[in-house]
Design brief:
Order of helices and strands: HEEEEHEHHEHEEHH
Largest sheet: 8 strands, mixed
Radius of gyration: 17 Å
Oligomer: single chain
Strand order of the largest sheet: 4-3-2-1-5-8-7-6
Number of strands: 8
Number of helices: 7
Distance between the termini: 26 Å
Length: about 210
């Protein structure tokens, strides 16, 4: 994909997320790797529904702005994940309704906020570790995510939202959509007698992905 194609893809996928209610106002940000050790990031305060290719932020590995508008302040934690995990080529950060609601609950398992009850959650994400609460833009978010970058494909930021990685931007968006649907089902099924997948069933799904 050329750089312009990547920019146009980001604009289109961001608009799709916005139009379907995964993001509101100026919340959320996307990023992906470009060639030459550079990164494409949505600008600060921008609505995912109103992006333009020429205004997307292009950064070097140290976060210096090379082209476009000023990047989201949360680009710091995007870059931290890229530095630590070379298999991560794209990141979606949203304040989507059900995952943000989940992030506000007390008593979540720090190792996995959503126990597996569908195979699709396991195949797409696997588990959802919880990062403790810090104000948006706090440097400790980046430090915590970097420390756990190799332990999962998605992370729930307490009282904030979700961070989801992917092999490319389409993969990261697909992972995010599956995760949001799993969180929605979690709330629909609250109070019901849920049949969770057994450890053997989860391991079988994980092994098939190897």
């Amino acid at each position: 994909m050329t750089e312009l194609e990547q920019k146009n893809q980001m604009v289109a996928l961001a608009a799709s997320l916005f139009n379907r209610g995964y993001s509101v106002g100026g919340a959320g940000n996307l990023s992906c790797r470009l060639d030459g050790g550079r990164f494409l990031v949505t600008p600060t305060g921008s609505s995912l529904g109103r992006l333009t290719a020429e205004r997307l932020s292009v950064l070097d590995g140290d976060g210096n702005l090379l082209a476009g508008d000023k990047p989201s302040k949360e680009s710091v934690f995007h870059l931290a994940l890229y530095r630590k995990n070379p298999a991560c080529n794209a990141i979606v950060h949203l304040h989507s309704t059900y995952l943000t609601a989940l992030s506000c609950l007390q008593g979540l398992d720090p190792a996995n906020a959503l126990k597996a009850f569908t195979p699709y959650y396991v195949m797409r994400v696997g588990a959802l570790p919880v990062i403790p609460y810090y104000r948006p833009g706090h440097p400790d978010i980046a430090r915590k995510l970097e420390a756990r970058a190799l332990t999962g494909r998605a992370f729930l930021l307490a009282n904030h939202g979700v961070v989801v990685t992917g092999s490319d931007l389409t993969d990261a968006v697909d992972n995010t959509e599956e995760l949001e649907e799993t969180a929605r089902l979690h709330f629909i099924l609250r109070g019901e007698n849920i049949r969770y997948l057994t450890d053997d069933e989860v391991n079988d799904l994980k092994n098939r992905g190897k």
